[in-house]
């Protein structure tokens, strides 16, 4: 015989058992305007807090990009593609041979993580330096701009101070597969908007 | 030993090129570079559970008329966890060309060679450590025109 709605737990109209997705949409239907606005505000607050934390990190470290993901294998075996690096860029920190710096070549967006192998510093603090990836045979002059032979302080995004392995892989996957990024954002957005605090 | 040649890897002006051969005796396990035969009684291990590798490098530091501070890395080596932490290297040639920015190596009496290393952890902070002990090397007053290596 057919089970009656009262016997099946969680069964409403339609007679089918409800999973968590159905619950979410049920919530959405039951929400009135005020609750919807509340959810939107909640969502906005989460986004704002995340942005504030990021901006705070930029201020504390002095670097425009305090957390970077290693994109190439030029610093292996120390750093692999997908590792996360934490940078500082204090103005008074001198650049010395052996340090790992993240720099941007003029005109290019992609930051490069390599080691400083030569510095020539004048008395007034002006410094020019040369970098090389640990895993590369030659120094970075081939990567610099046409005619540029040295890097300067202004090219530096930061000094690598700490690192976490593998964690940055998520960023690389999201870059290489944009559909994955949109799907992830859509799921996260839907969850935050629809989940009611009970 | 020093020559003055055109720096063919970089700018077109003539710069001083230095040639250095060196010996490295280092006991990285104990964090010290020792030049005598003392047995070290306090032993600490730099290769703990969180150390993936050490990046060692020999740098030459000196001052010239052109630049108040110059540092040039002459040689480097990656020492993985599990590698022999004691180094006995003799008659090593520098891995990288020792070009000065200008002509500051001629007659420069005080080039300091130091061994340092970058500790690369499995996760965490990346410290730079300088070994104790360094060597001062003077460069001659004249250029060599004969072939060196």
Give descriptors for this structure.
heterodimer; A: 198 residues; alpha+beta; Umud Fragment, subunit A; 7-stranded antiparallel beta sheet; 4 helices; elongated; B: 149 residues; mainly beta; Immunoglobulin-like; 4-stranded antiparallel beta sheet; 3-stranded antiparallel beta sheet; 10 strands; disordered N terminus
Note down, in words, how this protein is organized.
The complex is a heterodimer of chains A (198) and B (149). Chain A has 198 residues and is of the alpha+beta class. Chain A has helices at residues 20-30, 33-61, 169-176, 178-194; strands spanning 67-69, 84-88, 100-104, 111-121, 127-132, 151-152, 156-164. In chain A, strands 1-2-7-3-4-5-6 form a seven-stranded antiparallel beta sheet. In chain A, β4 and β5 form a beta hairpin. In chain A, α3 (169-176) crosses α4. Chain A starts with 19 loop residues before the first helix and ends with a helix. Chain B has a single domain, classed as Immunoglobulin-like. Chain B has strands at 2-6, 14-18, 21-27, 51-62, 69-80, 86-93, 98-99, 111-121, 124-125, 128-137. A four-stranded antiparallel beta sheet of chain B has the order 5-4-8-10, with no helix packed on it. Chain B has a three-stranded antiparallel beta sheet with strand order 1-2-7, with no helix packed on it. Mean pLDDT of chain B is 66; it is low at 1-13 and 29-44. Classes of the chains: A alpha+beta (198), B mainly beta (149). The interface between A and B is medium-sized, with 27 and 32 residues.
């Amino acid at each position: 015989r057919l089970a009656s709605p009262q016997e099946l737990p969680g069964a409403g109209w339609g007679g089918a058992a409800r999973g968590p997705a159905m619950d979410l949409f049920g919530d959405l239907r039951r929400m009135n305007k005020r609750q919807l606005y509340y959810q939107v505000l909640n969502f906005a607050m989460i986004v704002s807090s995340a942005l504030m934390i990021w901006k705070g990190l930029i201020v504390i470290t002095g670097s425009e990009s305090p957390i970077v993901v290693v994109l190439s294998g030029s610093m292996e075996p120390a750093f692999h593609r997908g590792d996360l690096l934490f940078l500082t860029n204090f103005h008074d920190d001198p650049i010395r041979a052996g340090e790992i710096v993240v720099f941007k070549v003029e005109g290019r967006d992609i930051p490069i993580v390599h080691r400083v192998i030569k510095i020539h510093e004048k008395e007034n603090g002006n410094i020019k330096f040369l970098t090389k990836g640990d895993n590369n045979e030659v120094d970075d002059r081939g990567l610099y701009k046409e005619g540029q032979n040295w890097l300067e302080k202004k090219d530096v995004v930061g000094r690598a101070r700490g690192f976490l392995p593998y964690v940055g892989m998520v960023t690389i996957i999201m870059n290489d597969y944009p559909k994955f990024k949109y799907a992830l954002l859509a799921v996260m957005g839907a969850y935050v908007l629809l989940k009611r605090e009970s | 030993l020093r020559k003055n040649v055109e720096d063919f890897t970089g700018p077109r002006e003539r710069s001083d090129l230095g040639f250095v051969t060196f010996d490295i005796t280092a006991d990285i396990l104990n964090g010290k570079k020792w030049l005598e035969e003392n047995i070290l009684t306090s032993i600490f291990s730099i290769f703990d559970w969180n150390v993936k590798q050490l990046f060692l490098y020999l740098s030459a530091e000196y001052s010239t008329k052109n630049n108040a501070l110059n540092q040039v890395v002459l040689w480097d080596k990656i020492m993985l966890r599990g590698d022999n932490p004691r180094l006995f290297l003799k008659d090593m040639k520098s891995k990288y060309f020792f070009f000065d920015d200008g002509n500051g190596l001629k007659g420069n009496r005080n080039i300091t060679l130091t061994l340092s290393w970058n500790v690369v952890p499995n996760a965490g902070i990346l410290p730079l450590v300088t070994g104790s002990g360094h060597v001062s090397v003077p460069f001659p007053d004249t250029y060599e025109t004969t072939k060196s290596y």
